[in-house]
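Input.
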Amino acid sequence: MNANSSSSFRHFHVVSWNVRGLGDSDKCNVVRNVFSDAKTTFICIQESKLSEVSFFKAQTFLPRPFSSSFVMLPASGSRGGLITAWDPALFTLTSQLSNSFSLTTSFSCNASSIDFTITNVYGPSDHAASPQFLQGIRNTKALVSGAWILLGDFNLVRCAADKSNGLFNSNLADAFNQTIQDVGVSEVDLSDRRFTWTNNQTFPILAKLDRVFTNVHLDLAFPMANLSSMPRPTSDHTPLLLSLASDIPKNDFFRMDNFLLRNESFLASITQGWHRAAACTDAAGQLVACIKAARAAAKVWKRCNRAPPEITQNCQFLIQLFDFFEETRTLSQAESQVRGLARERLHDEIKNKAAYWRQRSKQRVIKECDANTAYHHARATMQMRRKFIRMVRVNDEAVVSHAGKAEALSNFFKSIIGVPGQVTLIDLDSIYGDSERLDERISGRFTECELKQAVLLMNNLSAPGPDGFGPAFFRVAWPSIKQTILAFAEAFYEGVADLERINRSHMVLLPKKPDAVDVNAF
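Output.
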């Protein structure tokens, strides 16, 4: 496959971090925020110091949906402990194995033929066990086929330059380098710093203990792999971010989320955009221009008013803080107002989150509330996983690249649907000329009452059209936009509307049977 670093293509991010323990709840919150900010696909944690991890514990340090998709190697007492988590919407775990110092997981991409293995390691701080650790890497290599990422805290350096004081064990460094050569991997250079560990002293000793290695298969699949560091809010190790660029395009369609309609400033902004659209003599063209202007206004509003990801945690903190103060003294008027505002904002954020995931899960019968948000999130993830087409078969040959799949499917459906420019005219009078005429109430002009009733009867959770606006927008904004829609309906009745301007649609491929692979099986 050919990698592409363009922002229009999907990037997979792998975060590797020795967190130095996850027992403290406040530290877990900090760790989770680091992972959330990275927008990561895989999370590799070293030295969790946890002997077991429940789903509820995982939620404290892993962002959703990672908290339900992880495997672990338990800590030995207060030492070690490895955790590897992944985004289940994009990847499926196919196998796992572990030894005393490493956790190896193999994954299959839900959207393409990308398959690779990640070995998450934590090298022993007692170098008497380093030979056993290095032999374990060799043993793992014998069990791995295909693309491979070897990463983690190795607790070893490769040369004198890997320590700020120049002091190192040359025998261990030689053994480490020999192992790297034997297993056939190469190190991904850290682009923005020399060291990854500090002893946090006034005059610190710095070392490069955390690394990422890849084999030839991975390099061929992702030739533009890049390794950089992330801010270190806790621990004495720096988080590392491995970026892998794929040729799977991002979904860049605009989709208006229904929860935004709860915000008065958002609705006012997009309706103003609607009315600022350039004038067009054709009613269909005017409708399209208004929708485009409203869509542009919605994008601008979302960029300018996006809430920070930690807004929920901040509101919860303020509420708990003032509740604590209230137990020992009377809150001032200003403190009470701040707590009230935090409660209102938290309530709004919870409602918005619930509406967001309900709209995507398509489960109509489940009530929208915070208690069911996790359920709707899971349903949306399942839908996303099922919609990927991993491979299609053309003339008994498997096509796995995105470009190849798009070409094969496009060619097939063009052959049965037709191409632009081919028009077949049908003389309806010759077919229905002797038939009884329709009732005037059915064939007459559209009335404002009829159009409004049609909008109100639509399902708010129905999928939006190619313009990105669903029924909820037209229902809420009807008083402001109805004149444009009425003008289009009148032009349609008169037969003067240029329908080519709005004759656009998205084609959604639904498999006719499980494991569909032939182009005619969708």
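Residues 207 and 418 are 64 Å apart (CA to CA).
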